[in-house]
Design a protein that fits this description.
With 238 residues, the chain is of the alpha/beta class. It is 20% helix and 30% strand. It is globular and about 65 Å long.
């Protein structure tokens, strides 16, 4: 496999994983097993299969366990960024200002994608974006009947279990190094960075993917369901 692509992949893997407790009391979320491999290794492999092999892992909680696991994975080119304290979903990027040269991928360690990363990168470059947000339409259905009322409180009708469509931020981005200068020396989250970039007149656009092509495994019900859903994903070596 010829691994020639120079675009770095930054993976945020420093979180406490509280939504997956009590399992994360013992293992970092990134190493919870999903079928035959840890979540984080599945994500790295999905990029590796597209010939990306320049990874930065931003670590905090139980970082030594993650380093120990990947020390045995000699195929992967991994560098570590250590957060001395939790820095949010993108605060650690400030520590990479001198290591990232141009465009890079940023992703969470609890979301799996079955997408063509080259297409996303080409979209980002073609449109000369500073930030590209990967997003998906998501349908939510309420489990209750909803009462529609007049201003005076009179019932008009009951809509049984209505559904609503939203555009969801899926947790995968392509960014340009330029936006790193907007990150302060404190805990900082991606939505704050995006707002700062928009305020600075940076070009921010959305790349749409199918709802079926990503899984958020950061909470227990989704993690449990993902074991079957991932079988249909092409990006993973199952």
């Amino acid at each position: 496999l010829s691994l020639t692509k120079k675009i770095p992949i930054v993976l945020m893997a420093g979180g406490f994983g509280k939504r997956l407790a009590p399992f994360t009391n013992f293992l970092p979320k990134a190493l919870l097993p999903l079928r035959n491999k840890p979540i984080l290794e599945q994500i790295i492999l999905s990029f590796y299969n597209y010939r990306y092999n320049d990874f930065f892992l931003c670590l905090n909680y139980k970082s030594e366990i993650i380093k120990s696991y990947f020390s045995k994975k000699k195929n992967f080119k991994i560098k570590y960024v250590n957060e001395n304290k939790p820095l949010g979903t993108c605060g650690a990027l400030r520590l990479l200002k001198n290591k990232l040269k141009g465009d890079f991928f940023l992703t969470n360690c609890d979301v799996l994608f079955d997408v063509n990363y080259d297409d996303i990168l080409n979209f980002h470059k073609k449109n000369k974006n500073q930030i590209t947000i990967v997003a998906s339409e998501k349908e939510y259905q309420l489990q209750y009947g909803v009462c529609n009322l007049t201003k005076s409180g009179k019932l008009l009708k009951i809509v049984e279990k209505p559904s609503f469509d939203f555009i969801i931020n899926a947790g995968l981005y392509v960014m340009n190094k330029r936006v790193l200068s907007f990150i302060p020396n404190k805990s900082y989250n991606v939505p704050e960075l995006i707002q700062a970039a928009i305020k600075k007149k940076c070009k921010v656009e959305v790349y749409f993917i199918s709802e079926k092509s990503w899984i958020d495994v950061g909470q227990w019900d989704e993690f449990d369901n993902s074991k079957n859903k991932i079988k249909s994903f092409n990006n993973f070596n199952i």
